[in-house]
Amino acid sequence: MKKIVSIFIILASLTSCSDKKSENLPPAAGISGDMYLIMDSLQWKGPLGTTLDSIFNAEMRGLPRPEYTFNMHWIDPRKLNFILKQRRNLIFATTLDKRSHGASIVKTIFTPDFVKKIKSDPSLYITTSQNVFAKGQEVMYLFGNNEKELIANIRKNRQQLVDYFDKTERDRLSKSLFKSGQLKGLSDWIKQNMQADLQIPFGYKLVINEKDFVWVRQINPRDDKDVFIARKKYSSPDQFSKDSLIKFRDEICKKYLFEDPEVSNSYLITETTIPFVPIESRQVNFNKHFAIETRGLWRANNYSMGGPFVSYALVDEATGYFYYVEGFTFSPSRSQREIMRELETILYTFKTSDQLPVSNAN
Fold it and tell me: What is the distance between the alpha carbons of residues 167 and 347, in angstroms, rounded to a whole number?
């Protein structure tokens, strides 16, 4: 996956508010997935607002019911008060050609030198900063000489914009998920027996650990969260194809993932028959590894239960193993967006052999 370098750069020419010491700021407010967009009312109601809303308010892929990727809230710049400034995710958007009151307020963020940079470089459209008005806050600035220019840049890099805030939410979730520690002993077992690592939060329980397969789960009154690692020897790039991944997943599920431990022929399969929730795959940068992310639905072979899953397939070249890590949930009575974000956060702790700490033992 190509990296859009500018999305991760913080430009020093932004106003000094970005340089505030975070320890003197209040904590960011809001819940996971909340997004606040500050832009002129005319631009919000026009093509620019429609474009941004279609990106951040798009449905999350692979869920059985429609749920937005983020909860987008528009704020008129004239009404951006002290409370709203403390929200966890803020996006400021404007273009230099707009002369309205709202657009003028947003443009005061930029110094004269920075405005010169925007005018001289049409490809410059984004910068980000942290802890601007609150601790733990992420702020994105989107800008351009005119709407046509900015919309083109946004559309070209739409997935990177979503991925940026997805990573931000995972980083926040990671702090809370592992606050109480990890499932004792499992990380060491995976390192010793699978030449890899995966951090599992305290509260999950080990179901199966074998040489090439590990399954953990957390069963609550309203949901069942599951994570597993499967591996086999890497033999061909064809193993990354969607059909091959589904086949491998189904083989693993039939062998290990039972619907009812008392019924030997009850197992999980990949749901490929629902046209409005297809199995979707895409290339991603997964902890600096080429990987295929797959999202879709699973179900029991007897149709008794089902839900969404997300997985990552990658190769550890040092060991020659093909790894498949997945998180899935059974939570029929709940919103599933944040559960899947939690499972993603756990999966992103996966490390291959070359990423493990070097032992100091002689």
Answer: 12
